[in-house]
UniProtKB/TrEMBL annotation:
SUPFAM superfamilies according to UniProt: PRC-barrel domain, Translation proteins
RimM N-terminal domain span: 9-88
Ribosome maturation factor RimM PRC barrel domain boundaries: 103-169
Gene Ontology BP annotations: ribosomal small subunit biogenesis; rRNA processing
Cellular component terms (Gene Ontology): cytoplasm; ribosome
Domain of life: Bacteria
Annotated protein name in UniProt: Ribosome maturation factor RimM
InterPro entries recorded: PRC_barrel-like_sf, PRC_RimM, RimM, RimM_N, RimM_N_sf, Transl_B-barrel_sf
Organism, scientific name: Flagellimonas alvinocaridis
Entry's free-text remark on domains: The PRC barrel domain binds ribosomal protein uS19.
Length: 176
């Protein structure tokens, strides 16, 4: 299994017990759907290694307490602290309407209400406080904020995201 075939689920943040249980901080809005997993991929070095789960349950709000089959003592648990967990993309629950996964919209056209096609989404920048579509049009890069105010419609069939950009934003990129 390769990382590009998976989605990031969370990170092992600490040990929970002397029996090797660990706490995982989940990167999800719906932690409860991951309560009864049977296995995950743990990123060790440059590899994704399958780890099987004896028991898995929610701990507080977005932490998952996991008892792995392969981890039964503190020393083994120490080796996976800080490791990232992944699941295959096909395990993502489907989204509808204007909700989307970032990986899902790469290659979609951005259709602005005023300017028409303003580019193709080449990536998503989620490293800043404001998530941005990174689009390309005629060799020029556009950065469009990802907000409910701007996104008007996600058309999965046509591979388009319809947007209403703030006045002057598109001109800033394309008229230079």
């Amino acid at each position: 299994m390769h990382k590009e075939d998976c989605f990031y689920l969370g990170k092992v943040v600490s040990k929970y017990s002397f029996k090797g249980e660990v706490l995982v901080k989940l990167d999800t809005d719906e932690p409860e759907i991951y309560e009864n997993m049977e296995s995950v991929f743990v990123s060790l070095g440059n590899n994704l290694i399958p780890f099987f789960i004896d028991r898995c349950r929610l701990h507080k709000s977005n932490l998952l307490r996991i008892d792995f089959e392969e981890v039964k003592d503190e020393a083994t648990a120490d080796k996976i602290i800080g490791s990232e967990l992944y699941l295959p993309l096909e395990m993502l629950p489907p989204l509808t309407g204007n909700k989307f996964y970032f990986h899902e919209v790469i290659g979609f056209a951005l259709m602005d209400e005023v300017h028409g096609n303003i580019g193709t989404i080449v990536s998503i920048n989620d490293s800043a406080s404001q998530e941005l579509f990174e689009a390309e049009k005629d060799g020029k890069e556009l950065l469009i904020p990802i907000t409910d105010d701007i996104i008007k419609k996600v058309d999965r069939e046509k591979k388009e995201i319809h947007v209403r950009t703030p006045e002057g934003l598109v001109e800033l990129y394309l008229d230079s």
